[in-house]
Specification:
Elements (H helix, E strand, L loop, with lengths): L7 E6 L2 E6 L10 H16 L5 E5 L11 H6 L8 H10 L5 E5 L2 E3 L1 H4 L6 E5 L3 E3 L13 H18 L5 E2 H7 L4 E3 L1 H16 L3 H33 L3 H11 L10
Parallel strand pairs: 2-3, 3-4, 4-6, 5-7, 6-9
Antiparallel strand pairs: 1-2, 7-8
Helix pairs in contact: 1-3, 3-8, 5-8
The structure holds coenzyme A (COA).
Length: 258
């Protein structure tokens, strides 16, 4: 069964399912329909014996501008069953190898989803950012747990409290990505690495990944649920409403009274 639609392309070949963010005119910002398609694709990849690895990729100029801000304003995720939370639970507990190729901006969930991938290859134009505070929100995808664990509290504070972007070089140094290549090579490299995984015994891959993630798994699930509850509440609060309205109106937000 195919989960493709124009904004999310899903293609399975030679044991690799490739999920491509394909809404480039809107900087691959992710709508609830796109989250739904990605969650369905991961679920199907999990159960389909023909899929032994998954690649998530964008365009050589943009990975993702994060959640669609119009959706945040008009149809925010209301329950833990909403597509974004279904996608996050799916990617964080996905048992088979996950490979990502990232070029250009990776904003918000565009960066935090990478915390759940096993191998990440980046174009030298990649720029990572988690500006949740600038939007009146809080971290998601267990990033409030995983980012400090990855880079230490001080660097995490620059990324999560100041919302400062960081480069591919920094991402390589802290271990968020595996390698930096020319943007046009990133998707091809991710596929080559996925094909290497496909040739290995799946039983060994599954058990190795499970053991590698076992220490964090409970904490990730717990933190993701706590973040999700706060995030859902904060989406409705004045700071976030001001940030979203300002973005849509292409003006600077005014948080002076919030
Ligand atoms: N949600 C909805 N639409 C978005 C979007 C988002 N997250 N990000 C970009 N777009 C839209 C813009 O509104 C614009 O639409 P228009 O052509 O109809 O005006 C189009 O995509 C191009 O975006 P633009 O900002 O002009 O591109 P840019 O190259 O100057 O900047 C980014 C690219 C990613 C730096 C910038 O778009 C951005 O900061 N986006 C918001 C990121 C964000 O805060 N995401 C939420 C994280 S939780």
């Amino acid at each position: 069964m195919s989960h493709s639609f124009k904004d999310i392309l899903v293609h399975t070949e030679d044991g690799v399912m490739t999920v491509t963010l394909n809404r480039v005119d809107k900087k691959n910002s992710i709508t609830f329909l796109m989250y739904g398609a990605m969650a369905d694709a991961l679920e199907s990849a999990n159960h389909d014996a023909a899929v032994r690895a998954v690649v998530i990729q964008g365009h050589e100029s943009i990975f993702s501008a994060g959640n669609d801000i119009g959706d945040f304003l008009n149809q925010p995720p209301a329950t833990q069953d909403s597509p974004v939370f279904r996608f996050l639970r799916g990617i964080s507990s996905f048992p088979k190898p996950l490979v990502a190729a990232v070029c250009g901006p990776a904003v918000g969930i565009g960066t935090t989803l990478l915390l759940h991938c096993d191998l990440v290859y980046a174009g030298d134009n990649a720029a990572f950012s988690m500006p949740f505070v600038n939007l009146g929100l809080c971290p998601e995808a267990a990033s409030s747990f995983l980012v400090p664990q990855l880079m230490g509290h001080r660097r995490a504070a620059e990324a999560l409290l100041l919302g400062e972007p960081f480069s591919a070089e920094t991402a390589l140094e802290i271990g968020l990505i595996n390698r930096i290549v020319a943007p046009l090579q990133a998707n091809a490299l991710a596929r080559r690495q996925a094909l290497k995984l496909v040739a290995k015994p799946l039983t060994s891959l599954l058990e190795t990944k499970r053991l590698m993630k076992k220490h964090n798994a409970g904490m990730v699930a717990e933190r993701m649920a706590e973040e999700g509850a706060s995030f859902g509440r904060m989406l409705q609060e004045p700071a976030a409403r001001e940030a979203f309205t300002a973005f849509m109106a292409k003006r600077k937000p005014d948080f002076s009274r919030l």
